[in-house]
Amino acid sequence: QVQLVESGGGLVHPGGSLRLSCAASGFTFSSYGMTWYRQTPGKERELVASISSAGGSTNYADSVKGRFTISRDNAKNTLYLQMNNLKPEDTAVYYCRAWLGLWGQGTQVTVSS
Prior knowledge:
The chain is mainly β. The protein contains no helices and 11 strands.
């Protein structure tokens, strides 16, 4: 089955950290770039970070530069997003997307004291 499954979301205090995972199956993961997006109610989905198929090129939204790190393990067919120094404005549902047009179901991240 062709799918992406996110995990690792949850509730964290401001300044805390989380690592999101996105497990891919049913397609050749190593052939596609990947992107993390996030969305809050009433707002458009926002690009957070992207990574090329081999992992050699990354791109970040200005709002997360220096705090978030995107990475991938092609041997494990898994994409990651390490999120440090989290802020309340990072609260959102986080989605992974493969550049073949496939989306995951999302995982909720809530940053609150």
